[in-house]
Design a protein that fits this description.
The chain is an alpha+beta fold and about 200 residues long. It is about 30% helix and about 45% strand.
Amino acid sequence: MMPFLHHPIFAIRWARSPASLAIGLLLAAIGQSAFAAWDLQQLMDTLAQNKSGHTTFVEKKYIAMLDKPVESSGELVYTAPDGLEKRTIKPKPESMVINGGELFIERGQQKHRLQLQAYPELAAFIDSIRGTLAGDRKALERSYRLSLEGTAEHWTLQLLPLNEKMLAVIKRISITGVRDQVRSIEITQADGDSSLMTIEKSATP
């Protein structure tokens, strides 16, 4: 015989009761609050809490004229608010250090020093990475239209260039992450080529 609590009449009365209605409204309110709380600003605030980071990366570049992607790997070092270093270990050592408005590049015996203000498209690209790591929404919105998808546990931030010159080079930048950690950076170029950088386990400094 059906238990009393499971009887259809009791279920109908419970569904119509003030207590049931109150609980339903409470659960709905909690759900809406949780959804509303996760937005672009909250992501930026969460990322801004990271003052430094040391990770490894694997980057694959997909070039139309090549049959296989070009793969490289190394380390990324971030120091808030505007310090970023990319140390490529394989296939050939290379170092790119961004400090404020300067970019230092070292390949073997060759060394280059660039002022980012002289290369606005390059500066905008660098700021897409640096701005995301720093949670600097204003810096990002100077050069990109931002859109956020997903949840705090698995999010995707889309960056679409606003500048026509930048748009002629880069079509879209997609950055994925989990909570306060960036996990991948995908760049789709205007000519169809693309690159995907997967950020993996923490490296030993």
